Amino acid sequence: MQVLILGSGVIGTSVAYYLARAGHEVTVLERQPAPALETSFGNAGEVSPGYSAPWAGPGVPVKAIKWMLMQHSPLVVKPMLDPAMWRWGLSMLRNCTQARYELNKGRMVRLAEYSRDCLKALRADTGIRYDERMQGTLQLFRTQQQLDGTSKDVEVLKASGVPYQVLDRDGCLPYEPALAAVKEKFVGGLRLPGDETGDCFKFTQALAKLAEAAGVTFRFGVNIQAIEHDAAKGVTAVRTDKGSFTADRYVVALGSYSPALVKPLGIDLPVYPVKGFSITVPITDAGGAPESTVMDETFKVAVTRLGDRIRVGGTAQLSGFDLALNPRRRDTLEHVVTDLFPRGGNVRDASFWTGLRPMTPDGTPVIGATRIPNLMLSTGHGTLGWTMAAGTGRVMADLIGGKAPEIDMEGLTVARYGG
Ligand SMILES: Cc1cc2nc3c(=O)[nH]c(=O)nc-3n(C[C@H](O)[C@H](O)[C@H](O)COP(=O)(O)OP(=O)(O)OC[C@H]3O[C@@H](n4cnc5c(N)ncnc54)[C@H](O)[C@@H]3O)c2cc1C
Question: 39: Cβ below 6 Å to ligand 1?
Fold first, then answer.
């Protein structure tokens, strides 16, 4: 079957790879000159099924107000006259009940755990390298209240069968020895030994090469302008600045830019850009750098070892599609990494980056079929697109190939939004 994939972030590229391996004829359209140059470029590097949970949860509205008042705030909302933002925000608030949280988390964990298994199999099949490490992740608590507050998370982890360790201060040190120098700054942590880390950009670039070798055609520098359709035939072509492209099936994997292109087709996709920032710091003293990911619970900032670099990522900012690099967000990231790993690297030599997480109000991505038989979606992966990429690729290839996916698709498609 001929399949046209729109977008070559980690999601579109993963879908392309699995489709090609299943024997389909695949073309990928991407406006950038290479894969993974937008949101998949500089993320925090966690492949973390253990932390797969929606941001919308009980108590979050109150916490959000506190966060916004902090000096190094993890949440920034720029009040704008953007109806999509307000609609998205209200829908997110409606997801802040215990019942919705459990339902949404269950859906996310289902895909994230499957994705980790797919990534393992992919590594074994291809030997793909991306500064990967399999040393778990450590959520670090600066206050006793945070440590005591883990009991609810632990219940959820137990119920989902996710391995975990609750550690006191000294218990964290064998996993992150550099923290010994700043022991007085934290009281303990929650470790998820099954989580992994790695550079999403390197992964996507390497996977694109493997996909190309399996027959995928990448068309870079192509700006997609519209998806043409008619009532009888469904999608008939994709119009771009380099002409029109046709196929038997079309997969939209345009991250935060997906809703605008499917709206004229009558699909109301509640995916909104949630801006995040990262800095990448060259390591100057490996003994003073993290071993894996340390997630600072107070500032919601993840500090991850990626080869000879430290990636520091965080902040959720609602400000539309603006990609300005705000120096105040950089200050927060620098503050966390120098506070916890003062000897690890020199922040003055860091590069600063921003990306737009394609977020749904319920945290769960939107993958699979739509009402239009030849149009599929693969977007809305929000905070966990890197974690869920391999599984998404595999599920999409199975669906397009007419095979039942290995996981239940309940709650993962746009049907939950009436689309
Ligand atoms: C600060 C930060 C930290 C993060 N940390 C993590 C983490 O630790 N773990 C994790 O799992 N996830 C993390 N994420 C989330 C993860 O990065 C995203 O979910 C993921 O990258 C989304 O991938 P995507 O392929 O859907 O989108 P993208 O990577 O944005 O890909 C979409 C592609 O579509 C292309 N495109 C868009 N419009 C057009 C058009 N009109 N014509 C042609 N091409 C177009 C774009 O150029 C882009 O390449 C983080 C995100 C941020 C911002």
Answer: yes
